Amino acid sequence: xxxxxxxxxxxxxxxxxxxxxxxxxxxxxxxxxxxxxxxxxxxxxxxxxxxxxxxxxxxxxxxxxxxxxxxxxxxxxxxxxxxxxxxxxxxxxxxxxxxxxxxxxxxxxxxxxxxxxxxxxxxxxxxxxxxxxxxxxxxxxxxxxxxxxxxxxxxxxxxxxxxxxxxxxxxxxxxxxxxxxxxxxxxxxxxxxxxxxxxxxxxxxxxxxxxxxxxxxxxxxxxxxxxxxxxxxxxxxxxxxxxxxxxxxxxxxxxxxxxxxxxxxxxxxxxxxxxxxxxxxxxxxxxxxxxxxxxxxxxxxxxxxxxxxxxxxxxxxxxxxxxxxxxxxxxxxxxxxxxxxxxxxxxxxxxxxxxxxxxxxxxxxxxxxxxxxxxxxxxxxxxxxxxxxxxxxxxxxxxxxxxxxxxxxxxxxxxxxxxxxxxxxxxxxxxxxxxxxxxxxxxxxxxxxxxxxxxxxxxxxxxxxxxxxxxxxxxxxxxxxxxxxxxxxxxxxxxxxxxxxxxxxxxxxxxxxxxxxxxxxxxxxxxxxxxxxxxxxxxxxxxxxxxxxxxxxxxxxxx
Length: 559
What we know:
Blueprint: H1 6-21, H2 23-29, H3 43-60, H4 68-90, H5 103-109, H6 119-148, H7 155-169, H8 175-182, H9 192-220, H10 232-243, H11 249-275, H12 281-289, E1 295-297, H13 298-317, E2 331-335, E3 343-346, E4 356-360, E5 368-370, H14 371-381, H15 386-395, H16 402-407, H17 411-427, H18 434-459, H19 474-484, H20 489-501, H21 507-529, H22 536-545, H23 551-558
């Protein structure tokens, strides 16, 4: 085992201090003892995080790397912590509000990860519920500071926040009401005092979200900006945050337009194979949706299919295309307690006592699911996607410190790998079924559409002539979505609202895939230049053993 260096110890200490600042992070990492607490979301908490980053970087400047692992850690720390400081100093924390990834959602979502097997665990939930009003008050204080600094979210995101907070405040339908009710059916018999604490905590949480909705409506909305676009300066910073690389935004937009056209042509050709000569993509979708062998009924059947598909992928890939350690061969397919339509992965704890999990948040009323749409999703979230990627980093504790294993995660690296993994499964023959391959192309077409919309909207790019020209607007982006993405209207709106309110994140999937493919091509060329035989399995092992990294740092480490 590699001996821990001074830089490793610094990264470990930084992580331990992050856990102290963020009980929610402790829950995500499986660190015990802090599940009864919630994060401080106030301006003071952001200032404390900035001080920690400055202290860590100052100490890092006094240390000398001892080996290549240290060199990568130092480069990654400087990239991530330096950018976090840049964003803090620019005031990006003052207008954090969108429909997916802001404190409004995060303070609720953390309850999804909390265990519910014992009375003590339910007592932690009750205590955390009781802490929610203070956490939301701190969040409101940040938004109020932003208001004074004229850093206010777009009105579209404010309106979405009002609707979501209002829903969480509703006594009859709130997640918190349901959560408190679950204690009695969870296999324990809560004591009268615990039951009272849970109901009191749920009531306080609902009231806190009602106060947030009022603040957003009465204080923030009148001053919210009308335009969705954040502009080039903010977008460049966001792009570096999600990619860990500096990319040419204009060239990337042009590539996105070309990539969308290429995938569209590929899908249209496959549609004619599925539904006959002259068939359109819509015709193929209708034919696949009507195939009873591709339909799952109910969430129990969905979960079982997800589990079987994931298990079969592990069995088939291990020892052939990847070397999968024994403790990573387990992955759990779960139906999420929420109903927002998201599909996501949560990684294992450091000791694998909580395994990696795929979660499907099924919207209310949805009872049928089409396997042709989702097989590639299981590969994306499971193996060889996020589960293999994140699990391998956790498994490689002999080389990677705690920060490298569990904290340093970037969307460009992670989501880029997961899209690359989808294409790998096509390459390996797992998507030979025309319907399954069509579903993969459908997902890739969505991701290419995101590139065009996200960069086009926020950078003020020229819209396609068929949408009336001018610059991209929310309405013309909606037309582009409808022409290229096969989802129900509610899901399409959710997606487009996400791009409008979370700049730079959505394109990181497809752009990250592009950079992974470029890394593979460069590694192949480098091996040939040395007259070495290129091993794809070895390339993947070396890359995944490095853990999630800024993509510029990954390139320097691999090539």
